[in-house]
Inverse folding.
């Protein structure tokens, strides 16, 4: 167990290092920098700026310095907003994104699992068919389209919600719905097929042969096992919601990290881009790490496989 | 002998797209107290459907019990409500299945899977149920029972899991155990062990056993009586002695010929029964075995023979044994 967790943790650190390295050198490989763009900057000023950001040093030295700074939580200073630290920009805006993301994750899980379970229990009946049509739609339609439609129907036409802004709890509804639509669809399908499999499993027949009543069987044997595959989807779902939120925050005018990220790209604010990219990377990897660990706790078979290996 | 179970004229069908699969077509048999009855027959002959109908485990739809009675301890199980059946399953009738690798819930400790039934049927506390569960594990021959109690199914071999299944099925000391091909998925050496465990438990608790198998060899040392099923019908029944020493129905004889024997001579080949069972959506009007039978006569294709009783215990459904036909034959 400890071994398993340690190995997953090391794996995470290595992936992180690769991500940082790749991000760093990719940024270096892109021609140009923010001081070269639109406006002509006098050569002296440009040189001073280059010096200030360490861009005049050899790349490998810059890389070393960058790694060292990151280890101390310092992503450098924004190239566009020159009095702002990247770390500060991230921490200031991440709160809003985090709230939005967490709510979206919880909603996706609850609604997705419930929908999938109902579809499996009423296999090939009305609920199942409706749920699966919705799921196909949810998977096919990108979140920004869902967002715009929701905005149009419920904010613009019906006037139930604000079109923009992120202040009261009501302001969560539309962005969360837009973010959760796709994960809900995925989870519902995943849950449905896994519940169907469990419902037909031999051990359910064993449980019935013991004389347990259906509700006991449903909760103790069916749902518990049928939900396992959903845990593997937690990682990809986090990724989905993070990438989704970049666009959704823009659409609903939410001042979160996603919005910062988008503007950092259009500003070619390299330090900010790198900082946010790596920060997103850390979150994704953490999500994956936690998923792996969660799986061990719920599925005893995994422990054995690793005990045998180790 | 006092009978504990009587299956009377049982008909079970499945609705499928092409029509109605008549899986069980008028099955009759009884099981006495403490008796072991084997049901044998090729795959698809309706053994599992019969067994699961007794337990009322087959979902309906697609299945439908068209006709018949299953009298258990004097009461018809087919007229019980679901709730009433729950109180009988696991308590009065236990069941084990073919594949021990998939019959246990992989995410729940073995011990908990044994105690579940005990807690439900006997109102025991978990501690009491645990004592009983550990005791059951010991009885079915699992060493280190206390430690094994807290392990998961994947930490057990196939044979050990089948022992656990027996422990689960017998935990509440049911008076009837239905074992549906309990050894089919196991190695030959393990098969014998499982049979021995079942025999041992039967001696201890006086359980009646319905032992389902497609392999007559498995039942030889175990069954008091044998029921041979073919295409959803019982084609021959008799004591083990009668079936092994004096088989009458050509299908039973075919099954025995396809079985390897210890005293078999090298030049005496195993003879499999050629052909396949009939389509049960449109079962033949005559003897269902006619298409594969070496002795088939004209009458066989037209009329399904009635049971012929050769002794108090021996019955065969074949025109060859039919009193009317014998006259024709001998003349
Ligand atoms: N759920 C089902 N739907 C349709 N047909 C079924 C179903 N279960 C069993 N059958 C049919 O019933 C017949 C008897 O099956 P079964 O009792 O499982 O045979 P076996 O003797 O091998 O245990 C077979 O022809 C099988 O195809
Ligand atoms: S009734 Fe006829 S076809 Fe059927 S088993 Fe007897 S001899 Fe063969
Ligand atoms: Mg079967």
């Amino acid at each position: 167990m400890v071994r398993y967790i340690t190995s997953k943790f090391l794996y995470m650190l290595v992936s992180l290092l690769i991500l940082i390295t790749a991000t760093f050198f990719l940024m270096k490989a892109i021609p140009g920098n923010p001081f070269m763009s639109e406006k002509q900057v006098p050569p002296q000023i440009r040189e001073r700026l280059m010096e200030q950001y360490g861009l005049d040093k050899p790349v490998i030295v810059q890389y070393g310095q960058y790694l060292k700074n990151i280890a101390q939580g310092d992503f450098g200073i924004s190239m566009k907003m020159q009095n702002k630290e990247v770390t500060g920009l991230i921490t200031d805006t991440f709160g809003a994104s985090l709230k939005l993301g967490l709510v979206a994750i919880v909603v996706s899980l609850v609604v997705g699992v419930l929908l999938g379970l109902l579809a499996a229990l009423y296999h090939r009946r009305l609920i199942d068919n409706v749920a699966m049509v919705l799921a196909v739609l949810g998977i096919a339609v990108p979140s920004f389209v869902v967002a715009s439609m929701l905005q149009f129907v419920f904010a613009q036409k019906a006037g139930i919600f604000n079109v923009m802004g992120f202040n009261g709890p009501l302001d969560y509804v539309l962005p969360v719905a837009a973010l959760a639509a796709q994960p809900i669809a995925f989870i519902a399908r995943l849950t449905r097929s896994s519940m169907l499999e469990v419902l037909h499993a031999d051990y359910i027949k064993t449980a019935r042969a013991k004389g347990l009543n259906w509700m006991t069987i449903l909760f103790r044997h069916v749902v518990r096992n049928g939900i396992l595959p959903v845990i593997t989807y937690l990682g990809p779902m986090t990724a989905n919601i993070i990438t989704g939120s970049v666009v959704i925050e823009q659409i609903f005018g939410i001042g979160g990290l996603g919005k910062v990220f988008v503007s950092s790209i259009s500003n070619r604010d390299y330090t900010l881009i790198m900082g946010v990219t790596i920060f997103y990377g850390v979150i994704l990897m953490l999500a994956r790490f936690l998923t792996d660990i969660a799986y061990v706790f719920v599925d005893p078979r995994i422990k054995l496989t690793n005990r045998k290996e180790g | 002998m006092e009978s504990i179970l009587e299956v009377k004229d049982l008909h079970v069908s499945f609705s499928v797209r092409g029509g109605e699969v008549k899986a069980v077509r008028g099955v009759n048999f009884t099981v006495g107290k403490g008796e072991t009855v084997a049901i044998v027959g090729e795959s698809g002959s309706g053994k599992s459907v019969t067994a699961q109908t007794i337990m009322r485990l087959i979902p309906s739809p697609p299945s439908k019990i068209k006709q018949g009675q299953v009298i258990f301890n004097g009461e018809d199980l087919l007229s019980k409500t679901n709730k009433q059946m729950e109180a009988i399953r696991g308590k009065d009738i236990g069941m084990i299945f073919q594949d021990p690798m998939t019959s246990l819930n992989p995410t729940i400790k073995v011990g908990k899977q044994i105690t579940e039934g005990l807690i439900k049927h006997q109102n025991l506390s978990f501690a009491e149920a645990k004592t009983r569960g550990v005791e059951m594990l010991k009885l079915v021959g699992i060493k280190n029972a206390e430690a094994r109690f807290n392990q998961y199914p994947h930490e057990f071999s196939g044979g050990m899991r089948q022992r656990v299944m027996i422990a689960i099925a017998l935990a509440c000391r049911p008076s009837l155990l239905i074992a549906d091909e309990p050894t089919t998925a196991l190695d030959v050496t393990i098969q014998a062990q499982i049979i021995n465990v079942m025999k041992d438990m039967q001696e201890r608790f006086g359980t009646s056993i319905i032992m389902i198998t497609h392999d007559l060899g498995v039942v030889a040392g175990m069954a008091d009586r044998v029921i041979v099923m073919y295409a959803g019908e019982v084609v021959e029944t008799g004591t083990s002695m009668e079936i092994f020493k004096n088989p009458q129905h050509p299908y039973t004889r075919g099954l025995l010929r396809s079985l390897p024997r210890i005293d078999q001579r090298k030049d005496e080949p195993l003879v499999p029964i050629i052909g396949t069972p009939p389509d049960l959506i449109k079962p033949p009007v005559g003897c269902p075995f006619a298409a594969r039978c070496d002795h088939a006569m004209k009458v066989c294709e037209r009329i399904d023979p009635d049971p012929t009783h050769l002794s108090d215990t021996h019955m065969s459904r074949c025109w060859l044994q039919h009193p009317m036909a014998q006259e024709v034959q001998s003349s």
Q: What stands out?
A: DSSP finds 13 helices and no strands in chain A. The interface with chain B takes residues 201-203, 205-213, 216, 220-221, 224-225, 228, 298-301, 304 of chain A (CB under 8 Å). Residues 231 and 295 of chain A are 7 Å apart (CA to CA).
